[in-house]
Amino acid sequence: MEPFYFLVFGALSAVVAALELSKTSKDRITTSPAFNSFKNNYILVYSLMMAGDWLQGPYVYYLYTTYGYGKGEIGHLFIAGFGSSMLFGTIVGSLADKQGRKRACITYCITYILSCITKHSPQYKILMVGRILGGIATSLLFSAFESWLVAEHNKRGFDQQWLSLTFSKAIFLGNGLVAILAGLCGNVLVDTLNLGPVSPFDAASCFLAIGLVIILSSWTENFGDPSENKDLLTQFKGAAAAIASDEKIALLGAVQSLFEGSMYTFVFLWTPALSPNSEEIPHGFIFATFMLSSMLGSSLASRLLARSSLKVESYMQIVFAVAAVCLFIPVLTSFLVTPSNEKGGVITFSGCIQLLGFCAFEACVGIFWPSIMKMRSQYIPEEARSTIMNFFRIPLNIFVCVVLYNVDAFPITVMFGMCSIFLLVASILQKRLSSIAEKSKPQDWTTHKEREMETAPLNA
Q1: Using alpha carbons only, what angle is made at residue 118 by residues 116 and 121, rounded to the nearest 5 degrees?
Q2: Cα 138–46–187 angle (5° rounding)?
Q3: What is the pLDDT of residues 34-50, one digit of tens each?
Q4: Transmembrane ranges (predicted)?
Q5: How far apart are CA 135 and CA 140, in angstroms?
Q6: Helices of type H across 57-174
């Protein structure tokens, strides 16, 4: 393997270590023992859930190829997963608000375990069922757990600023360290122990089962709005009304969809971007490097969120702009660097520049997750939190399905240019959100409901 990869990984490791070890009292939040116990319990569960997710990611495509399926059939399986998340995600999110967030988290564990079990079958229909189950589980992973955390945090009366500490630590460990360890674990299971490409899915089931036991034994239930017996259609209308009536919520959903859409597109494109002529690149090591970059970003986010004088709405404008520049680098290198036509070989000079840009983008991703969680906790009404969060994922899933369906229709540079434009738009919308937030406090959902009740007789 080229020394360049070790150099980048080593430099990132040194920066992350320096950031963590150099934290001062200004970068830390003083908390209570009760909160620390609560935080550690959630982070343990979240890390187990993410381990179950990260173990599967690198081997889904590979497993399908070992069963003899081609690119088109595999593409349809992936589209089914994102389509399932889009169609059923909002429904399960609403059920989480109505039936309980703890139950939704339990449902996530069971659904994802069942999805892992289907990977043992080479039959296309069973694999399709697994992708549909996986799509439902993904919607729950990115809504139910955060909704439970925010509601439980507030119910226990903890300081609002402490919530950002839980977010940043969860992302630092769950989306950083756990991702790296999961990649190494999967590599040992498949390549070292020769247990086959389905073994990471069995390991994921074990981690999910452990997390399920912890949830059942230590979590309490919380709801969105249990006082009203609402059906799903009423909940959808209420969530849509909240988005339409509060520009801050609409802007938050827009910037989230634009950033995550670009992020998921990047996931599909980084491999062909770094090896356009089938260059030999260490995919697993590069993946670990990206996750280390994400850890760097989450470490920076923890410092930023710890400073009450610095508003998350302000610095995220810069993060989105930097992310746009990072994903525009492949477009620049295509014009400024003479492309190599040599097949195979090592990574090119252009590839090295792009890799550095991609690492910077992953650092932006590391800042994005805890920061967007913080903003969601401020602006999304508690009564419909899971429903609205899954509403935000509808345009994201549509976008990813379109990209997957047309991935071969456009050059890579066009795709990266499109993502860069999306991120610039996100930066502009974030600036708008920041200006509105400075003028008004987050809308109180109770006041919103009271206003609806007052106007209801007039509309009758």
Answers
A1: 130
A2: 75
A3: 999 999 999 999 999 99
A4: 6-22, 43-62, 74-96, 129-150, 170-189, 201-219, 285-306, 318-338, 344-369, 390-406, 412-429
A5: 9
A6: 60-66, 71-99, 101-118, 124-141, 144-155, 162-172
